[in-house]
């Protein structure tokens, strides 16, 4: 079969859980799909309501890469539109690079469709801006090393030196070690928020500190499916953005004189 006759594979970001947080394009592709593969341990099965009746949908949570690729290969060879549904955004801890390399070897056309990541949904739930005017302008997306290590230069000990916003993935069961590593360079009272099952029914969060976050998570029985946000952005207040300050000029507006440099109490 020629490449022109082959089906296509779409790696689609499903979002953090809420079925309405998939993108319009992702929803359309699910509606058009002839074959859907999804990780049932992470992806909300409510998203499958967008799939046409009779279209095969395979839960890949228990499959190896080889088994998953076999399904993709057969679907593409039959000219099908294949949707590989990933939780959040596929580019973050999505294990898509190995899949892309495999479809490239098979000369199967593919495309990545971005999704809403859980760290963004967590910030929305908390009502916080990850980058704060007058404060940190950097967001670090990382995880605590465990059975799967991280490079030593990217350890939480090293990343804590910057005092930036930290979004901690895949680490809810490793908070004791995460706290110990962070407190090498950050004070124990640095704010932290543990957000469990964000956008799912029963979502909840705990406001805490890095010194107390492991104990607080344990007390609440939170051991997985939680995003941990760390940094002063969680309590920052008072500064306003220069972008909308009347005393600040830019390409779309000239200065209008002195503006307030903070919010009135």
From TrEMBL:
Pfam families from the UniProt entry: TP_methylase
Alphabetized CDD domains for the sequence: Precorrin-4_C11-MT
Uppermost EC category: transferase
The EC number(s) this enzyme carries: 2.1.1.133
GO terms of biological process kind: cobalamin biosynthetic process; methylation
Signal peptide (UniProt feature, chain positions): none
InterPro entries per the UniProt record, alphabetical: 4pyrrol_Mease, 4pyrrol_Methylase_sf, 4pyrrole_Mease_sub1, 4pyrrole_Mease_sub2, Cbl_synth_CobM/CibF, Siro_Cobalamin_biosynth, Uropor_MeTrfase_CS
Source species, domain of life: Bacteria
Any GO molecular function: precorrin-4 C11-methyltransferase activity
Pathway(s): Cofactor biosynthesis; adenosylcobalamin biosynthesis
The UniProt record lists the keyword S-adenosyl-L-methionine: yes
Keywords: Cobalamin biosynthesis, Methyltransferase, S-adenosyl-L-methionine, Transferase
Stretches assigned to the Tetrapyrrole methylase domain: 9-213
S-adenosyl-L-methionine among keywords: yes
Annotated family: Belongs to the precorrin methyltransferase family.
Protein name in UniProt: Cobalt-precorrin-4 C(11)-methyltransferase (Cobalt-precorrin-3 methylase)
The organism of origin for this protein: Syntrophaceticus schinkii
Gene from which the chain derives: cbiF
